[in-house]
Amino acid sequence: MQLLWKGGQASANESLLPMSSLPTIADHSSDSPTTDRSPSRPRHARTSSAHAKGVADQFSYMTPSEAAAELRTSLTLGLSPTDALTRLGECGPNEIPHEPPEPLWLRFVKQFQEPLIMLLLVSAGASLLLGNMDDAVSITVAVTIVVTVGFVQEYRSERSIEALNHLVPNHAHLVGGSGAKTPVDEALDAASSKVMAGQLVPGDLVLFTTGDRIPADIRVTKASDLSIDASNLTGETEPVRITTESLAPGDGNEPDRGGGDSHNVAYMGTLVKSGHGQGIVFATGGSTHFGTIATSVSGTESPRSPLQLSMDELGSQLSKASFAFIGLISVVGWLQGKKLLEVFTISISLAVAAIPEGLPIIVTVTLALGVHRMARHNAIVRRMPKVETLGSVNVVCTDKTGTLTTNHMATTEMWYFGAGGVVDIASDTETMEAKLSQASMRILRIGNIANNARLTPPYSRWIGQPTDVAMLDLVDRFNEHDVRESIGPRISETPFSSERKWMGVTIGSDPRGDKEYAYMKGSIEKVLAACDTYLEKDGREVVLDSSRREEALGAAETMAAKGLRVLAFASGPVSRSAKGRAASGGPRGSTPGPEHGASSPRRTPDDAYSDLTFAGLVGMSDPPRPGVARSLRRLMRGGVKVIMITGDAETTALAIGRQLGMSIAAPSAHSSSQTTVKPVLRGDEVDQMSEEGLAQALQHTTIFARTTPDHKLKIIRALQSRGDIVAMTGDGVNDAPALKKADIGISMGRHGTDVAKEASDMILTDDDFSTILRAIEEGKGIFNNIQNFLTFQLSTSAASLSLVFLCTCFGFKTPLNAMQILWINIIMDGPPAQSLGVERVDPDVMNRPPRRRNDAVLTKAVLMRVLTSASIIMVGTMLVYSHEMLADGQVTRRDTTMTFTCFVFFDMFNALACRSESKSIFRGEVGLFANNLFNWAVSLSVVCQLLVIYLPWLQEVFQTEAIGFGDLLRLVVLCSTVFWADELRKYLRYGTRRLGSGYSQAV
């Protein structure tokens, strides 16, 4: 078999790795793997998909111990940092190989293959043959400058897009030799040894849990209720059950089969659907099964966004119109008896200048730079076309916990039967000690045992889920001890999920596990359903009747009305019938020991959690994030409806919504022919509604409580059926369908799973709702900027065409020669135009409504601006040309220099006017020097224009001559009229506008 990175052959008795080059585990370091790995690494050799699958098959036939021996690693310690660095140097990074980029010199040369450029070169050659050396050199120099500018633009565009791929780094969790006893402890330990996935090497021991993306090809050595979504490799939508048992060749249980067959290999790129596991990396990068497939399609071109396609179409239409117009100019010039070569050269130069071939490139650069600006504001856009959609979003559906709120829980209230009401536990330690009772002690004990948070030795603080941390903080405040290490072994755990809405553990009362006790916490409805008795204040257990259930529900309602998250607690012995059901069959998960793939019994979640004793309630505060209320108001003022979707109780959600100032409908009942208006809808009510009924309810309802991810999907469908453009937040595995369905799927960067991130279009690295506002603002601002530089480019193009056309029709000599026209093209497509694409977002952009999805970029308002500016530029330039020409009765270099400079100065003032469609620079609404790139671009253009006028050798190239300082001043005054005319337009619109400052009628 061919080695994965050495290219040699191995016999059946030889190892899959070159053992002579790999260290042994005799001198294993006990340190955890670190992130400090050498960046100097070779690249992977390319392997075939069949070969990669063959290697995976071989490891699937081995036991975990045999796989560890084959890879010279440890099942408990993994690789030491030294071993990992050595292998990283030998194996290369865990990255998919890419084809080497085309050399820059070759890409530059290819710029000369453009048809119009080739025609200009033909024109230069013809001039040379006819003895017009000056024209030939001038055209060649001008063409070289145009090609260089185009090459730089294209290169910058590609680099901007390439940089987007590095905005979302992938990580992996390495397992070190910490001596952790439980899978949960291992998961928490692994958080301190998180490394970039690209640094993994064969032999690394990797931990993965629900929602993670598998970072390499891994032989699974531990698995607990582990299932993996391999649909991106197999096409099968059914998650694959993962166990640790080795397979036998020919047993029909091949590792690459879909469906529910058992597997023991997790492939790179697949997603953990449930459970958690651990395994040894045996293939990385291009040697993985995913890598071989990705390499085969590496040349596939990324699809263009709708805006880019519309710009392509617009450019094509403008090109056709320009060609027709230029053809007319050529015919008129030829009929007037002008030289054919002169007509040909001018026509081709006009085509180069008038056709906005740089428009798609500038759009791409603008979108890419917008994505980078969003990343600096903690919003990472994974798919560039979605930037366009952000400006059209009119509904934002958001989670409550961690997005609208801080997700920092603090226990403030407690309730139990006999307490005489809700007990305040937000006071000092002495007061809390006096309040301790048998019932409150039971609540503390359950909250302590059914808990996966732990203390971090370096920082001496609890880490884990916020509710778990809050309960352990409460235990500390009551001066109680963490009893998890002193009780019996944890037999099983039922993790919390958004569908289940509770979690629980079963604990053995002795090492043999003959007796088990269940500890449960979760929503009060779920916990009460599992209880048949309750605990009195003095510790007596009493039958839980309907009146007592209503009393508990009422107490929970009181807490929730204050915006608290309410957790209920219960415990009790596991019934014999439940233990009997678990022992008599049912599904089994695999929880192997360190060196073996043994599996342990697994009962269904509800088996152990019945006939329990209800202990009481704890209320936790999760205050709104600072600034969220202001962001909500700005979104609603901008026509964006905000909908809260939470798993919390209806009263809690309503209280938080009011604290945030959300638009909450007043409840009202209607006749059967009308919709009943409810401020809050529960998940069970959503289940009973049709999509049409839900769509009607969404006209008023803005809060949904006790929901699951399935409800999110139904809500999105109902909103989209009304024509809404929906942004949806989510962080869990089961949120993925809703994130994919939404027009903009938004995942959480800190607490979101890899599955959610994979399905999303945008990632909030700070999990903050206010970041969504900034992203929508940026999306709207980008569209405005695109309209602004489109106005600038089209007005320049229209002015140059109309100027030459009028002069040709009147029989005048062409006012601009080919080199001057090409120079204008450089300004039109060069730095000034690009700098308009990075103009700062207007602070008042949220005062205008969302843009409709099908709104055109080239609107009537934009066309009016284009025609107005082009007319002023053309008339002003024509006045200068005719004045200079009539002064001496002939066309001299001074005449063309004055005309040329006039047109360029008009262009600069036009660019200044195009910085904003509605905000005035004169009134200070747009800072004159706020856009540094624009300032540098215009300054550079003006300096270059002066060099063209006054530098002798450039005078020969562009056929110009020096003009006086007074001439320059007169031109500046005249050319500024295009700026003042636009300022007048803005003033008139500002005085009559009623939709608030910043509203743009161009969209």
From TrEMBL:
Stored SUPFAM superfamilies: Calcium ATPase, transduction domain A, Calcium ATPase, transmembrane domain M, HAD-like, Metal cation-transporting ATPase, ATP-binding domain N
Localization of this protein: Golgi apparatus membrane
Listed InterPro entries: ATPase_P-typ_cation-transptr_C, ATPase_P-typ_cation-transptr_N, ATPase_P-typ_cyto_dom_N, ATPase_P-typ_P_site, ATPase_P-typ_TM_dom_sf, ATPase_P-typ_transduc_dom_A_sf, ATPase_P-type_domA, HAD-like_sf
Gene Ontology MF terms in the entry: ATP binding; ATP hydrolysis activity; P-type calcium transporter activity
Pfam families to which the protein is assigned, alphabetical: Cation_ATPase, Cation_ATPase_C, Cation_ATPase_N, E1-E2_ATPase
Signal peptide: none
Transmembrane feature ranges: 862-881, 896-913, 933-951
Keyword Repeat tagged: no
This protein's record includes keyword Magnesium: yes
Name of the molecule in the record: P-type Ca(2+) transporter
Biological source species: Hirsutella rhossiliensis
